[in-house]
Amino acid sequence: MLVSPHRTNRPWQGEISTLPSEQRHSYEPDCYLCPGNKRANGEINPPYTSTFVFTNDYSALLEDVPSSKIIENKLLLIKVESGICRVVNFSPRHDLTLAELQESEIGHVIAAWQEEFRSLGSHPAINYVQIFENKGSLMGNSNPHPHGQVWAQESIPNEPLKELKQFKLYYAKKKHSLLLDYLKLELRLKERIVYENESFAVVVPFWAIWPFETMIVSKRRISSILELKEKDKKDFANALSILTIKYDNLFKISFPYSAGLHQAPTDGKNHPEWHFHMHFYPPLLRSASIKKFMVGYELLAEPQRDITPEYSANVLRDLPIVHYKNIQ
Ligand SMILES: [Zn+2]
Ligand SMILES: [Zn+2]
């Protein structure tokens, strides 16, 4: 990782992305996620009032494919992957996002995530469940209705697999969680901590690649969302609310990001090494319209960032915890 804070002063003549319109109605007749509307497969959404979960009409993973079939051709290996893709609507309101939901409403989203993780993860053929949200058109999200996805599959994908290996190595040596020890260090230094409550901390990781990348980490080592107690759940909703509000307040826009939970594999084994956390990867750098590109040196050599993680943490920490739309 290369950090070059002096580069933020360089003249910018690049892309000014047009800002997504903030004009949104609470109900949109053409939205396939709004209550009572028809989806692509002809099904009608129920008149839901809280969260609503359904199987994706255009799933990237399919359930009924020949399981574990491996095709080998000298250097190339193809494995048939089976899985299930689900959509989680966070709210019936078309015009809101996590940042504008009440903490109690975010609590319902967490409950829906728990239910999906429990039911999909208990399927014998499902060994990993990825819960995530792509927010904003900058992240390729075509529908602004607040929603996330759940992809459940047979094999453990690359990113969690890399973490699993490191968590295991550390646990084998020290008999405790790598992320817990890391969090203790951050909580002592306080340089990269954005926010904390009793059960969770929000930190700009030491290794952050994206300018305003953060992680929500549980202060107690748990393997998955299923181990959250009532108080933890409230604190998780609180951390999610505060972080997304601060993000929106940063450039006074609905802040785009990809975010997702990293939880232990659902392979039927115990995972005392795994530590529940959530990543936020936002693309914006210096304003609502200037985004960070992962190109050139980043693609070919290593990640590089123009602002230090300590600076980002400082900026986010100082932002108000009341959404800018609610500040008179
Ligand atoms: Zn909608
Ligand atoms: Zn992770």
Could you explain the architecture of this structure?
The protein has 328 residues and is α+β, with helices and mostly antiparallel strands. Helices cover 26% and strands 21% of the residues. It has helices spanning 103-121, 158-174, 178-189, 230-251, 296-300, 309-318, and strands at residues 2-3, 52-55, 70-73, 76-79, 83-89, 128-135, 147-153, 193-196, 200-203, 214-218, 257-262, 277-281, 284-287, 290-291, 304-305. The strands form four sheets. It has a nine-stranded antiparallel sheet, sandwiched between helices. Strands 1-15 form a two-stranded parallel ribbon. Strands 3-4 form a two-stranded antiparallel sheet. Strand 8 (193-196) and strand 9 (200-203) form a beta hairpin. Helix 1 packs across helix 4. The longest helix has 22 residues, at 230-251. The chain starts with a strand and ends in a 10-residue tail after the last helix. The mean pLDDT is 91. One zinc ion (ZN) is lined by residues 28, 31, 33-34, 94, 145.
Biggest beta-sheet profile: 9 strands, antiparallel
Query: Which structural category do the helix and sheet elements fall into?
Result: alpha+beta
Strand order across the largest sheet: 2-5-7-6-11-12-10-9-8
- String of helices and strands: EEEEEHEEHHEEEHEEEEHEH
Share of residues in strands: 15-25%
What descriptive keywords fit this protein?
binds zinc ion, alpha+beta, single chain, 21% strand, 15 strands, 328 residues, 26% helix
Q: Quick summary of this structure?
A:
The protein has six helices and 15 strands. It is α+β, with helices and mostly antiparallel strands and 328 residues long. 36% of the residues are buried.
